[in-house]
Amino acid sequence: MSWPWIVLLALALALVVAAEWRRVSGLVGLDARRARDRQRRKASLKLIRTEEEEFAESVQRDLSSLPTTKERDRS
Asked: Which pTM does this prediction carry?
């Protein structure tokens, strides 16, 4: 290959990289690495329930299990 063909090939390669830069940087760029690291950290998180949440749920269960009567107002 002569040098003009090498130059044309390099220009074509640069044009393709410039046209696809958004997609390429989204896959291998710094933001993509941060997103992967964040996703990995989020996967290892564990939900901790507080006593207030447990108490509220137990109150809801107790209230729903109470017997109800269908009394009509006597006016």
From this structure: 0.39
